[in-house]
Amino acid sequence: MKRPLIRVPLPGPRAKKIIQRDRELLSPSFTRSYPLVAHRGKGMWIEDPDGNVFLDFTAGIAVTATGHCHPDVVRAIRKQAGMLLHMSGTDFYYEAQVRLAEKLAALAPGKFKKRVFFTNSGAEAVEAAFKLARYKTKREKMISFFGAFHGRTFGALSLTGSKVRQKENFGPLVPGVTHVGYGYCYRCPYHLVYPDCGIDCVAYIEHTLFKKTVPPEEVAALIVEPIQGEGGYVVPPPGYHQKLRALTQKYGILLIADEVQSGMGRTGKMFAIEHWGVEPDIIVAAKGIASGLPLGAMITRADLMDWEPGSHANTFGGNPVACAAALQTIDLLEKRLLKNASETGDYLKSKLNELSRKFLLIGDVRGIGLMIGIELVRNRETQEPAPHERDQIIQRAFEKGLLLLGCGESGIRFCPPLGVTKQNVDVAMEILEECLRNRKRVTRHEKQDKKSQ
Ligand code: PLP
Fold first, then answer.
1. CB of 230 closer than 6 A to ligand 1?
2. Is the CB of 367 under 6 A from ligand 1?
3. Residues whose CB falls within 8 Å of the CB of residue 427, separated by 6 or more in sequence, listed in order
């Protein structure tokens, strides 16, 4: 069974030098949680410049869907790179972009005709959706959610409701955005319990927001992540997205599904919203779409995208090499990886549930497919978040060769490449268990919690 290999204490001498040079020059605004320097990648594995080999359960923040440097994707990139690197879809035509648009239009939920706009990133796709919603409806306001992450450009940042650090000192942001509580049942923003609540977090928008502060006829769109990503890998309850769909339809509000993290096969379906059987008006995708090449897409109902020539465009969106990588990525998803995401995702979740029975620190296990999160708490009764313990575990896992990422206040996300095997999962769980077991300090809360069980 292949395992991580740590040859020298981390970071090793070569990695250290790169980190020092990086610190001199690159923006200090990044949030690197541990000093991994990636030198090369293959499948599930990342090697650093000192020859240490890591098992990657981050996929570069849910991006390398087909695994690092999948040979078919690399071949498609090489072939396209030798033919045409760039010509700009803003002013000219080329086939790679059309082929990918045809594919995405066929895959996105809804039997209606669709149109596609390509971007370079998730945030840029969100910007496009925000602009199109205003343009089409001639309405100004937007509804978004606490815990949502939609990106860091001004429009996308205005919709984001994840961490105050992401917003402080950047104001004024785009006006007209109202945030409401998400369907986060583990920590219900309205302190209700599903299913008795009747999903009041959606009804709240109508019975409170629309009556007291936000006239519904002024709302252009509601943007929602089918499963919140950065905000903590939060899966809303059954019926949630259907209710949002019905509410938005009732008031002529567009429904935008931000599938930047949850889409492109991560949950075992091409788009996560399919788990709820909902057809949004606009879908935005990026991250996993091209296995690591920068690409984003906005897919909409055809009748929505009737903006005038010159009203919106970009230079690099739909770059032919990125499109070739995306077409190959989708082919691999359809042939094998969607199924694997479902099956191995279930296996991973069952293993995490086993760990949660052994370790009180794990307060919640949730997710669909290979978009799985655990939430760490100091006390299961009070659900006090355990961010320090979470950071410690992620750091220890790194030292043992397992790459993990945090999410939310005290969550850990598991978003490996979609070809991850059960053996990879077993290795990861073994390392995670060691990290949980060997935590130096058991908190007073945990001791009390243990006694009371
Ligand atoms: N939307 C969601 C749901 C995301 O998770 C992210 C990034 O994490 C974005 C939008 C922004 O994407 P990008 O970082 O490519 O701009």
1. yes
2. no
3. 1, 2, 3, 4, 55, 402
